Amino acid sequence: MTLRAVPAPADLAGSARRRRARWLALAPLLPGLAFLLYFFCYPVGQPLWLSFTSRSGAFATDQYVQLIIRVPVPFRTSFLVRAFAWMVLLAHNAR
User: Fold this and answer.
1) What is the pTM of this model?
2) Residue 59 contacts residue 50 (beta carbons within 8 Å)
């Protein structure tokens, strides 16, 4: 078991000063972070939040389930149309 010396009040003030200096070094990042939050996180988060809430404001997944079902359908349709088009183009004609 090792004993640690209690730091002097001057050492505590120095560590607080160093900690504050580290936070102040990050201050130039704040405008960029605010820009990202306002122009990226908010526009992405708002529709996501609305998809999980009902008109009354209660938590509901009805809209989200409808979105999950409706979005992939055009992709599947497009895939099927392309697949059949390739089958017609690559078919061997017996003429």
Assistant:
1) 0.39
2) no
